[in-house]
Design brief:
The complex is a heterodimer of chains A (about 425) and B (about 325). Chain A is of the alpha+beta class and about 425 residues long. Chain A has helices at about 85, 100-105, 140-150, 170-180, 210-225, 240-250, 260-275, 320-335, 340, 405-420; strands at about 5, 15-20, 30, 35-40, 45-50, 55-60, 65-70, 70-75, 230-240, 280, 285-290, 295, 300, 305, 310, 345-350, 370-385, 385-400. Chain A has a 6-stranded mixed sheet. A 4-stranded antiparallel sheet of chain A has the order 1-8-6-3, with no helix packed on it. In chain A, a hairpin with a 2-residue loop joins β17 (about 370-385) and β18 (about 385-400). Chain B contains 12 helices and 14 strands. The radius of gyration of chain B is 20 Å and the shape is globular. The N and C termini of chain B lie far apart (about 45 Å). Classes of the chains: A alpha+beta (about 425), B alpha/beta (about 325). At the A-B interface, α3 of A face loops of B.
């Protein structure tokens, strides 16, 4: 059966692509995963792979020409198959200048024309109507329908979370976030045929209602990793002196119970004050720079996580921070935090060291500019002065919002964090 | 800027316009010797004398017609209805004379008249005295309909209405006369008719509210902010001509709309706004437009029932949560 090749989304900001080079000619055999063409996006030249087996029957967009996302650019099919109905859906040359209309037309799922009435609107363009499926009418909010058409999303692949299964804006946003994460995979309208394995039946499953906090986490996180351009910086920090300092302080007064994490919070706060460009957040039309370092501390709680905030950690001493974190975390676990106690941080710290995690990346909590992911402190052999010695090593990874923090800015900040943690006496000078 | 009540703001507007233009005069029941049933016209008789500030008999159709005639010969009357409930008696003059005259005279006669007074619910004055009639008047071409919600808007809009060359229905809210706010004391301060005001900016849901519902919507927006929902509150201020562009712009941003009004829902102003949003922003809606209106019953006298008949903060909050798919 003929399958359409559409202009795929190859970068998060791409709106149209130009065919740099076809790697196959009409009539060539292609198999799934094989490079089909090179496409110039707004960012780079990317390879587009074939997503079905067959023969490249028709090229609709020539080298050097552009097409908006989702537009039909080629057809793959059997050598002798009639593909005229597929080609007839391609926009006419003059329509190509109207990306939205073209994208909407191309996004219409491949179905026999009779089951998919497309009423032309006042301008004579075919409008994409929600497509009825076997179970009946599909319910889509007008906004969601338009967003799906513009993004070239097949509504039938989506699950509606609104009343009566209505597909609404947040469902489209969630789907778009998923597509972005696999951005190098061009989308096809037809789902790939699933190869049945030895076990014929699908795995059984059970559905549990998502709790409010789980849904909030989901909603918050997709507003981060999708729209916020993350990049990651990792470094190794020698923690021997920090560990020694902690032991020393706690020996003075066992009630203080300073943790390594408390020291990290303090150090991060001081480093933020030294690097005001990192203690900032992107606010669409302006960049907000904070005077103090309000540090969000990710706390795992039953069924989720929450980030209570240590306000102005730069002004507080270690025992104040330790006491505050302990108290906030306790109330976080019993769900007794007030909203102002877990919102409005300027930067966050997330520590999975206690779970034996060596290194991980954390998702930024918008509108904060960054988050530092802390791994476990473990003794490791390292080379110092040409000798192998054992040091307490901790790996940290900083996620940065590239809209406010550039690579070098983040790196310099991380350098300061490393410098202070490796020589914690800096905290008192 | 001085902080004054809506009552004082209206008084200032009338006083300043009486002083500014000698063609302006005021008439109505009890406006002169008694200083107005709601004291909006306090002190005006004393200042401007009985030729400019005139007590009328209880004859709404009569003095409305007198006003239209005066406007035809070049004066600029302000006609006060003790409440807009009594304007019902004068509708023939308002609708058949004032609204039509410019058209039917082939452009020979402008009718620069303001019909003003309190409208909407008050405190336990029951069915006949609690009516919000703006949709009636907004229906007719030839009339402008204005409904302020703050002292500054009341002053600026009333001055523009008095200076306007067409008949203006200016509906004050009986419960709001004592509401306070800052008002510029510049005698040339006016607010143009037909321009909506964004009373609060937000990103998640647009609440369109007028008159009594503006403070209700703002309180609801405060509550919703605590729940993580950011509301934009738009006060059209003028019902006709309606600044639909500002509303559409907001809807395109938020994708969700709640329309709050004190009046009955059937053929109401919000039914019209809802239709316009559907026509002009259909592809931007993520949820059906939700109206919160007064109950579709004559206003009850009993206090508990009266409270139930008028939209309150809780109903607006619930409507916003519904269109934002939060419940």
């Amino acid at each position: 059966m003929a399958s359409k090749v559409i202009m795929p989304k190859l970068s998060p900001t791409m709106e149209e692509g130009q065919i740099a080079r076809w790697l196959k000619k009409e009539g060539d055999k292609v198999s799934m995963g094989e490079p089909l063409a090179e496409i110039d996006t707004d960012k780079a030249t990317m390879e587009m792979q074939a997503l079905s087996n067959g023969v490249l029957r028709k090229i609709l967009i020539n080298e050097g020409e552009s097409a908006p996302l989702g537009q039909l650019i080629a057809v793959i099919g059997e050598p002798d198959e009639d593909i005229s109905s597929v080609i007839s859906e391609a926009p006419k040359p003059e329509a190509a200048a109207k990306p939205t209309a073209a994208a909407a037309a191309a996004a219409a799922p491949a179905q026999p024309a009779s089951s998919q009435p497309a009423a032309p609107d006042a301008n004579g363009h075919a409008r994409q109507a929600p497509v009825p499926n076997e179970s009946g009418r599909m319910i889509v909010s007008p906004l969601a329908a338009r967003m799906a058409a513009e993004a070239g999303l097949d509504l039938r692949t989506l699950h509606g979370s609104g009343p009566g299964g209505r597909i609404i804006k947040r469902d489209i946003e969630a789907a778009l976030t998923e597509t972005k994460q696999v951005a190098t995979f061009p989308r096809v309208v037809e789902p790939l045929p699933f190869q049945p394995a030895v076990v014929a039946a699908a795995s059984p499953y059970r559905d549990e209602p998502a709790s409010e906090i789980r849904r909030t986490i989901a909603r918050r996180l997709v507003t981060s990793i999708g729209p916020v351009p993350h990049f990651f910086l990792t470094t190794e920090i020698e923690m021997d002196r920090a560990v020694e300092m902690r032991r020393g302080i706690n020996a003075l007064d066992p009630d203080l119970k300073i943790s390594i994490n408390d020291i990290i919070i303090k150090v991060v706060a001081n480093a933020l004050i030294q690097h005001p460009a990192v203690n900032a957040s992107f606010q669409d039309k302006f960049i907000r720079h904070y005077e103090h370092a309000d540090i969000g501390v990710a706390v795992a709680i039953e069924d989720g996580l929450i980030t209570p905030v240590v306000r102005s950690a730069d002004l507080k001493n270690l025992s104040q921070i330790a006491g505050e974190v302990r108290e906030l975390a306790e109330r976080a676990r019993s769900r007794r935090l007030k909203p102002e106690e877990y919102t409005g941080a300027t930067f966050s710290v997330s520590n999975l060291g206690m779970f034996g995690i060596d290194e991980f990346t954390a998702v930024i909590n918008p509108p904060e500019g960054g988050i530092l992911a802390i791994g476990a402190v473990t003794p490791k052999p390292v080379v110092r002065d040409n000798e192998i010695v054992i040091r307490q090593i901790m790996r940290v990874t900083m996620s940065c919002d590239h809209r406010v923090i550039d690579g070098a800015t983040g790196a310099k900040f991380l350098q300061t964090v490393k410098k202070i943690l490796e020589n914690p006496l800096y905290l008192v000078v | 800027m001085p902080t004054i009540t809506i009552r004082e703001a209206l008084n200032q507007a009338i006083r300043e316009e009486l002083a500014r233009d000698e063609r302006v005069f005021l008439m109505g029941e009890e406006v002169a010797a008694y200083d107005g049933a709601y004291k909006v016209t306090k002190g005006l008789l004393k200042e401007f004398g009985p030729k400019r500030v005139i007590d009328t008999p209880i004859t709404e159709l009569g003095f409305a017609g007198l006003g239209v005639g005066a406007a035809m010969v070049g004066l600029r009357p302000i006609v006060e209805f003790m409440t807009f409930n009594f304007s019902i008696l004068a509708t023939d003059q308002i609708i058949n004379s004032a609204a039509k005259m410019l058209y039917m005279s082939g452009g020979q006669f402008n009718i620069p008249i303001v019909f003003r007074g309190p409208g909407g619910s008050a405190f336990q004055v029951s069915s006949q005295h609690s009516q919000a009639l703006e949709s009636w008047y907004a229906y007719f071409p030839g009339l402008k309909v204005v409904m302020p919600s703050t002292p500054a808007d009341a002053k600026g809009l009333l001055k523009s209405s008095i200076r306007d060359d067409d008949p203006v229905i200016f509906i004050e809210q009986e419960r709001m006369y004592g509401n306070k706010g800052e008002v510029p004391d510049d005698p040339d301060f006016t607010i143009p008719l037909g321009v909506a005001d964004v009373k609060r900016e937000g990103t998640d849901v647009t609440i369109v509210a007028r008159s009594l519902m503006v403070p209700v919507a703002l309180k609801a927006a405060d509550k919703l902010q605590e729940q993580g929902v950011s509301c934009e509150v738009i006060d059209p201020r003028t019902i006709r001509p309606l600044d639909i562009d500002t509303i559409i712009q907001s809807v395109r941003k938020t994708n969700r709309v709640v329309l709050a009004e004190e009046s009955h829902p059937i053929c109401g102003v919000n039914a019209q706004i809802s239709a316009l949003i559907m026509e002009r922003a259909f592809d931007y809606l993520d949820a059906p437009v939700k109206r919160v209106s007064g109950e579709d019953v004559p206003m009850p006298y009993a206090k508990n029932l009266e409270n139930l008949a008028i939209p309150d903060v809780e109903r607006v909050v619930a409507a916003v949560r519904e269109v934002a798919y939060l419940d």
